[in-house]
Amino acid sequence: MSENLTQLARKIDFATDGEEVTTEEKKEEEEEEEKQPFQQPHWPLEDVRNKIRQAFTEMSVLHDLLVIVKQKPPVYMVLDPVQAEPLEQKNYIQFLALKKSLQSAATILLNGAERLRTSQAEMGRPNRAVQDFHIELLRLRQNWRLKKIGNNIIGDLSYRSAGSMFRHTGIFEVSKADEASGPNATVGPGAVSPVATVPARGIQSSLRVTVPTELMGSAYIFVCIKKDEEDICSAQLTSSDFVAGDIPWQQKLEKAQNVLFCKELFNQLAREAVKLTPSIPHLVVGNQITATIFPGIHLLVGLCHSDGKNNVRGKATAGQGPPVVGGQTSNVVGGGSGSGGLGPATVGGPGPSKYKHEHDLEHSLHQLLHRVYHHSFQHPLPHPVYAPMGMSKRRRAAGPEGMDKNQVISLMKEQTLLEQIIRQVQHNFLRLRTMYVIDQLAAEFKDPLIVSHWNAFNSPTQSCVKINIVTQGYDSVLRTKLVIHIFERTLKCICRDGKIMTMSFEPQELRNLILCQISQHNMAALQALAKYTGWTLLSSEQNIGTGAIEPLGNASTVMLASPSGNKVIGVHSGPHQRVSVYVSSSPRPDFYPSTVVMEQRWEHLGSNWQEVRLDRMEGRNFLNKMELLMAALTA
Amino acid sequence: MALPMSVPHVGETIESAIKNQIVPDQEFLLQGSVLDTSLGVVIDRLRGLCDNADIPPETFHDHEVVYLLKDFNAPVTPGPAAQGVMLRVRRAVDHPELPYQLRYVGYPELGNYPALLRNCLDVPVSSNVCEFLQELGAKLDHEFMAKGYIMKKGRIKVTVFKMYKVGAGMSKDNLEPLTMSHMVELSVLTTKTDMSVADDLRALADQLKPLVQLERMDYRRLGPP
Q: Which segment of A197-211, A417-431, A613-627, B185-199 scores lowest on mean pLDDT?
């Protein structure tokens, strides 16, 4: 303890402030200090005591001195002001300094004037190489949200202000393009550029926008329908305009925003695909989602994203050759023909890609997400104004109307994007397949003709076709009409007689239905024709129980008698059989009285049925042949 | 999105919601007024500030009836207990199909909040609520019509309206205004735990600064009615 105190005390130097100590005193001190190391201190604080004493001596001297000086009248000492030594005037240095500062000020002014002059000159010139930064910034601001943070200008690409909930920040930075840096600066308007000249871009932008690397390039959502490893539609994947190098900022920003949008859309779909639990679960692998829409039919949704460096990430067609990369390289190399976004839809790879990108479905997906945005912003405003915000009108009324739990839950239900797109795809697919079945039948059957009218106005999940079955040349005799409504998984057919049939998505059902309708049309048309020709309808049976069994449906028959009654025509027609015609005449020409039937009058019973070989007959179609047959039999 | 199917008893749900303070029963309010002559300017400014700037602001026409519920026979004593409870019933005249709203507004909270903070409970009710309140013993205190514009900015509800007298012989089109000015109200409902929205409210109010002075109005300073 005491040692520590001694140590500390030794450090005190009372002479540190004594700068005015006379040299003599200093010398004394030094002498003393020199002596001290040789003497062993008698007691620990001796050192300190010596210093204090020294300080005391100095103070006493100073005090005495002051007393003598202050003596009035001054006798021994007078204080005399000290004349400061006059500074030597170094004029030339001052002048030099002045000249230098003036020169620097002048340079600044001259530089400014020069810049003003050049900018003025550029303003006057119509075709300037570089646009004014501020004017461009103003134009940028008209279309994009900008914010100034510190010295940087930050823009916002996200759709958050439009109702998006995506967590990506989506910011971009705006800076002034350096005149001397970057490849674009070297490519002046007059300079001949080897590769990157785009004829449309004569004016060089003075703005440079920097988007995050993950939003570079371009992206789109790839949608296709595929059968189990079998082509349903064969076309190649076209690589859209992939960015190569330098493009105007507006395009660049739009592309980046599109990438952001596609990412959000895919993100949302993937989340829903995982969350939904249908009977056949959806597959989410990497950048693609596979959902089963019908047995054996799959919907494929993929995110195709290519950054500007020739890297295509994302789906492209798995294992089907490199379709997109081919398009990429041609885009970069073939700068002469059409670079940038002007390149033709390039066929990728050696063979055409297996799957066709469904543009309308991609559009529907975009629309669906836009609708989500819209809904998140378009809550009805409360009335009366005390009502809480952000609630639908029905939910507000739930309390006073005393809704039960199920009703409230039904209010909350909302279809996810994936469910909606699957429904649309199902409808789309079913519509195409219906169209295909009808067209096949129309091509297969020329007699009677099948005419289909598709409704041009339809919803994404419902459309309608009207089918007319007529016989050529006899369309005033009879038209068989039916309407088919196509929904997501079912078809509803409304026949002329008011029968409504609901069919599943299997194409065979529709085919059978139309075949039955054709058969019935033939029979009905024959009956109508008989009226015109004066033949009498003896009988008609829609569903005859005899004869060969039809695989589906029933055969029908018609019996007609000639005006004079001596000829009878029998017609038999089934959905899957040809029409067969039989003729019988009475009195029968070959009546011979036998032991059982003796009387002559029995010859009127009618002869055996004889089949008419319709294919050998003249006439364009069935009804025409029948008309000729009737005419021949009447004559 | 479906609600979880195993919904607990309603009472428990409400209790736990109250316990966790997630019921939006706190209202931040800023009020101001503007003369009729400069109403157009304020509306234009608000349209620019609020959401859905592309469509014209929605109008509203509400009828408010205020009931007082207290022990009318008790001797008059100073203090909040004697003042009773005020219950406000509002109906939308222009939307008769929508439910009425019953509102209870508490006293402003003490403390240094950026806006007036008060307890506020809103319940949608059926149209016979007035008879119900009268059966409870509430007495009609006053009533008025409010007519104006409603806008929103995020969670903030912005109303600009004028109050009209209600009386016999006053049809929907022929109303007698109470003042020559419009009231501007910014309000937002929040929970006890989330007070950050008050700053948004203040920011919006500051944007309207030279046109409307939006302030936290303390009714108790206005003196007894």
A: A197-211
> What's the rounded mean pLDDT across residues A149-153?
86
Cα(B222)–Cα(B225) distance, integer angstroms: 8
Which chain B residue is nearest to residue A411, measuring alpha carbons? Answer: B2
Angstrom distances, CA of residue B80 to CA of B44, B54, B72, B106: 41, 46, 14, 11
**CATH number of the domain that residue B29 is part of:** 2.40.320.10
Residue B1 lies in a domain: no
Closest CA in chain A for residue B157: A389
B98 neighbourhood in chain A, CB within 8 Å: 383-384, 387, 393, 396-397
pLDDT digits (tens, 9 = 90+) for A68-99: 888 888 778 888 888 777 777 788 899 999 99
Cβ–Cβ below 8 Å for B88 and A382: no
Number of structural domains chain B divides into: 1
Q: Establish if B14 belongs to a structural domain.
A: no
* Number of domains chain A is built from: 4
Q: What are phi and psi of A214, to 5 degrees?
A: -75, -10
Q: Which residue of B1, B2, B99 is in closest CB contact with A400?
A: B99
A68 touches B: beta carbon within 8 Å: no
Same domain, A613 and A495: no
Residue A29 clears pLDDT 70, i.e. is over it: no
Nearest-by-Cβ selection for A387 from B101, B159, B161: B101
> How many contacts does A have with B, using Cβ atoms within 8 A?
81
Residues A533 and A629 in one domain: yes
Closest partner CB to A383 (pick from B92, B103, B152): B92
Domain that includes residue A541, residue range: 526-634
Q: Which residues of A touch B92 (CB under 8 A)?
A: 383-384
Lowest mean pLDDT among A20-29, A338-347, B78-87: A338-347
Q: Which domain holds residue B90?
A: 24-218
* Residue pair A159/A167 in contact by the 8 Å Cβ criterion: no
* Range B7-10 contact pairs with CB under 8 angstroms and sequence separation of 24 or more: B7/A405
- List Cβ neighbours of A532 (8 Å cut-off, separation of 6 or more): A477
Give yes or no for residue A482 having a pLDDT over 60: yes
